[in-house]
Amino acid sequence: MRLLLLFSSLFITYSLTAQDFYKEQRARWLQMAEQTTPVLTETIRKPKGIVSMVKDAAAYQGWKAVPIHPIDSLYTGSFKKKSGIIVDFGEHLTGHFSFSLEDIRGVADAPLRFKFTFAEVPAEAVTPFDPYEGALSRAWLQDEIITVTEVPATITIPRRLAFRYVKIEWLGGSRYSDFRFSAIGVKATTSVKSIPAALPAGTDSLIAKIDQVGLTTLKECMQTVYEDGPKRDRRLWIGDLYLEALANTYSFKNHDLTKHSLYLLAALANEKGYLNGNVFERPTPHAQANVLFDYALLYNVAVKDYFIATGDKATAMDLWEVVKKQTEIPKAYLQADGMLDYARAGKEWWLFFDWREGLDKQAALHGVVIYAYQQTYELARLLGKEKEVADLPALITSLSNAAKKNLYDRKTKVVVSGKDKQVSYASQAWMILSGVLNAKEGAAALQALTTTSEVVYPGAPYLYHYVIEAMIKCGMQKEARELLTSYWGGMVSKGADTFWEVYDPKNDFLSPYNSYVVNSYCHAWSCTPVYFIRKYPEVFQK
């Protein structure tokens, strides 16, 4: 029945268009996605204690959690005198929250009303949500008003939540009766079913902690798709999928989740054949119509990596048409000199790469096109499909030569981007990953950034991943380790249970959405220390 509804929905959507590039494949791809939907593992988690949020200028966002009472104190005596307490579950959890109430005096002649505020980090539990001026919906904030009409009662909040801390406030009830909480718990969910091997004894304690927090981040985001954030946005984005799948390959090895996500994205591509940047599973699978230039190309890399990790040639062959179609996107912007028409591409597509305001993305765009073409051609070679993309080697050469000529400043030894010749970590990283700069040139460019004025730094863990990848490719193992331990280790030192969507060591309140309380503090693209630490043990485990 569910599949029938899905097919009907898609038929209505795509029958409105003159031509659907994947008309013959959509139903089957959706069926493959359906068949690979993971069964979630459910576990019951109980709170560990009661905490007080204390102002501390040295703590992340100015607040830290201080234990004040054991959890048993919640369940004894009237809750009316305890309203406003904050419960600590001791770990980040994603799932459904339940609570039970019991009468302790009199007969309730009015409903009980509560406000629950769920927080991933301490400041979120005590920062007023209103007035809200964020750029994203206020509804993402995790506060719920619950009215209980009968006691005793056990209530499960319908909305799935992601949190560590719960603030509980009593808003009203009968003056002639009293009550207490008798139980609180969470049915936590994840599609993870195995425990990765422990790091070797003797691994640096900070590296081990970063790995553990990274694993928790990945576990929480591995639901029925690779979610970008279990609090917000709770959907499948290609950029997050790519990085999560890398970390998963070196940890939980739940490759069926990768397969499921790849098929879902393919089935929900737009009628021209281009992949939407993100998709939703519920109530029926559907896409948010926004095609990200760089994300669409990274899908190709994700398919190639999946094939190498699993040997599942059938899936790679089945999705080859999608992969091949994405290679057409940059071709519309190729100019006679081998450069891409960056200005036009920026008007017609969303170019992401990083949240950093003011980042010029010309060089990064050029680099990701070359990189994706290289990876796509490698996949074609593995599948025996080289003839179908026979133009890629020449395009790679032309694009690479043009980038070296127009974007590499031989005097300063750095890559520049845009009309103002901006110097950024994004530009260096993607020119290195694409091979436009060789290892020696790449190392010199990254080292030059430390003494170059007005360098644009990464604004989120997403771009820091590619910077570290570039460092390793250049043989800068020491610098890669130092950056991982300083950046992700900085989050650990500030109390992170899971790694955050955005993190600037100089600004705890940075938000792309004009409100730090709506930031995601368990975010998929932040999990990749797991990948680095486990793929390169000679760099990170010794």
Can you give me a brief rundown of this structure?
By secondary structure, this protein is α+β, with helices and mostly antiparallel strands.
Write a structural description.
The chain is α+β, with helices and mostly antiparallel strands. Helix 6 (255-267) runs antiparallel to helix 7. Strands 1, 2, 3, 4, 5, 6, 7, 8 and 9 form a 9-stranded antiparallel beta sheet that branches. The chain has a 3-stranded antiparallel beta sheet with strand order 10-11-12. Strands 13-14 form a two-stranded antiparallel sheet. It is globular. The chain has helices spanning 2-15, 26-35, 122-126, 205-221, 238-249, 255-267, 293-310, 313-318, 320-326, 328-331, 342-348, 362-383, 392-407, 425-433, 439-449, 461-473, 477-493, 529-535, 537-540, and strands at 41-45, 49-55, 63-70, 85-105, 112-119, 143-148, 153-156, 161-172, 178-190, 236-237, 278-280, 286-288, 408-409, 414-415. The model is unreliable at 1-17 (pLDDT under 50). The longest helix has 22 residues, at 362-383. It folds into 3 domains: 1-40 and 205-287 and 458-542, no CATH class; 42-190, Galactose-binding domain-like (Jelly Rolls, Sandwich); 293-301 and 325-351 and 357-448, Glycosyltransferase. It is built from 19 helices and 14 strands.
